[in-house]
Specification:
This protein has 66 residues and is of the alpha+beta class. It has a two-stranded antiparallel sheet with strand order 1-2. The chain is 33% helix and 12% strand. It has one domain. It is globular.
């Protein structure tokens, strides 16, 4: 039996029970912004800068690159 493999599975299971990597952290501070496409007010988890566009959830999906 390979103990390293069993240990890895145990670690991964623990991470999932905590709710991912951010599970123990406080909620993110949200910042108000205006969508560069539709002009709708939205909130983002980072401080927007004027040199880069910010998109609402709907418009972000249109611009997202895979």
């Amino acid at each position: 039996m390979d103990n390293r493999r069993d240990g890895f599975r145990g670690d991964r299971g623990q991470r999932e029970r905590r709710g991912g990597f951010r599970g123990d952290q406080e909620p993110r501070e949200m910042h108000k912004a205006v969508c560069a496409d539709c002009g709708k007010e939205c909130e983002v988890p980072f401080k927007p800068s004027e040199d880069r566009p910010v998109y609402c959830k709907d418009c972000y999906r249109k611009h997202k690159r895979f």
